[in-house]
Design brief:
The chain is α+β, with helices and mostly antiparallel strands. The chain has one domain: Pleckstrin-homology domain (PH domain)/Phosphotyrosine-binding domain (PTB) (PH-domain like), CATH 2.30.29. The protein is 24% helix and 34% strand. The protein is built from four helices and seven strands. The strands form two sheets. A four-stranded antiparallel sheet has the order 1-2-3-4, with no helix packed on it. The protein is globular.
Length: 135
């Protein structure tokens, strides 16, 4: 039986219901990768390089505030997961800030500029477009 090595995990949480971890949806960051696991009988795991995260957003409803949770959405340059939604996680502000910090550290370590990452979406919109080319 293979056992997961938890020594390198930087952050982890799971989806919560009424503030309690009563879900089989788990999130964690290990090294330079983000992992999303779902399911109990039948499970699925998604893995993404953390530097591919382009933007983050945070949403908290009134009920979320009562239970101390929030939803953080990761907008990515990953082909399979354009948006990863971390639903109802504990300490959403701290989590958003931590992920943002880790993304910047990974990009600095790999010498990747933000402009290079945003160039990924140019192909989806229709390539390079310059206002001077209109006429």
């Amino acid at each position: 039986m293979r056992r997961k090595d938890k020594s390198d995990i930087i952050w982890h949480d799971r989806r919560r219901r009424f503030g309690l971890p009563l879900s089989f949806t788990k999130y964690h960051i290990k090294g330079n990768r983000f992992f999303l696991s779902t399911g109990f009988f039948s499970s699925e795991e998604h893995e993404m390089l953390i530097y591919r995260i382009l933007d983050l957003s945070l949403k908290r409803t009134f009920c979320d505030k009562l239970f101390g949770v929030g939803t953080v959405t990761l907008f990515t340059a990953d082909e399979t997961n354009k948006q990863l939604v971390l639903k109802k996680i504990k300490h959403p502000y701290e989590t958003r800030d931590l992920i943002s910090k880790i993304v910047e550290e990974q990009r600095a370590q790999l010498h990747i500029r933000g402009r290079e990452m945003y160039g990924v979406s140019d192909n989806e919109v229709g390539g390079d477009f310059d206002d001077g080319d209109l006429f």
